[in-house]
Specification:
The protein has about 270 residues and is of the alpha/beta class. It has 13 helices and ten strands. The protein folds into two domains: about 140 residues, Rossmann fold; about 110 residues, Rossmann fold, CATH 3.40.50. The chain binds D-glutamic acid.
Length: about 270
């Protein structure tokens, strides 16, 4: 009996690993940490290659493969693709190459959102995500009559990473995209890039806050339920380690908007 308990605890104590191009994935990370405070966590912000939304599938595949190899070395039990862009462009190519649970944000969240009573939905996302049509495809898989309007907002990622959300020029850029979207009269708008929920206070100056869906909460609940179903839950330490591929100071500073890091993240090359 004791032996069996030890094996289970060893398996579940392995960390849950997150990655994104920068601080954006912290919107998901902070939600999962609230739900599962005693899990062990790794977080990799590939700041050297940010913005992911302007990269090709081939480039993203090579960055993500190295990050996943690193997580395997670190003995992760699951990987959270806290990045819409990689979920839309490379999840299908990478999912069977690793003996790990991999959670892609778009596919996981769309399975929840498509069940809501919404007829017209807007999606703000990166160029790469919009061009892939991933949200539209995934939402219409189980709800073919849902109308999906997608608009790319590539400049929003830098606004967040460089902490410029309150600057007048940024507010003008944000409002322009919102006005464009409102012409379609959506009932809800998905913030389909993990960086965008940082802008919710600016967006809700112009439309009610309830208009905007931050996929992070739906995603965190989905991950928790699935880990539970697969008997992968419950660690008892609660450590966290952060890594970046450039500019640890900037990361720590921008992260403050959503999550406070005690220490600077460690610099790990992803060349
Ligand atoms: N935050 C990521 C996403 O959800 C990528 C943003 C970027 O680096 O362009 O798509």
């Amino acid at each position: 009996m004791l032996k069996e308990l030890k094996i289970i605890s060893k398996k579940t104590n392995r960390p849950i690993a997150f990655f994104d191009s920068g601080v954006g994935g912290l919107t998901v990370y902070s939600k999962l940490k609230q739900l599962l405070p005693y899990e062990n966590y790794l977080y990799f912000g590939d700041t050297k290659h940010m913005p992911y939304g302007e990269k090709t599938g081939e480039e993203l595949l090579s960055y993500a493969s190295r990050i996943l190899d690193f997580f395997v070395e670190k003995n992760a039990k699951a990987v959270v693709m806290a990045c819409n862009t990689t979920s839309s462009l490379i999840y299908d190519q990478i999912k069977d190459k690793y003996d790990l649970k991999i959670y892609p944000i778009i596919q996981s969240v769309a399975s929840v959102l498509s069940k809501l009573p919404i007829k017209k939905i807007g999606v703000f996302a990166t160029h790469a995500t919009v061009n892939s049509g991933a949200y539209k495809i995934e939402l219409q898989k189980s709800n073919p009559s849902m109308e999906v309007f997608q608009i790319a907002c590539p400049e929003w990622v830098r606004i967040v990473e460089e902490n410029k959300a309150n600057q007048p020029q940024s507010i003008i850029q944000i409002k322009e995209k919102l006005d464009e979207m409102m012409q379609y009269k959506p009932e809800k708008i998905v913030l389909g890039c993990t960086h965008y929920p940082y802008l919710i206070n600016i967006l809700s100056k112009f439309e009610p806050k309830e208009m905007f869906i931050d996929p992070a909460l739906h995603f965190a609940e989905y991950i928790k339920n699935d880990l539970q179903k697969n008997d992968l839950l419950q660690a008892d330490e609660g450590f966290e380690e952060f890594y970046v591929s450039s500019s640890p100071e900037n990361f720590k500073e921008s992260a403050k908007m959503f999550y406070y890091l005690d220490n600077l993240p460690k610099l790990i090359l992803n060349d």
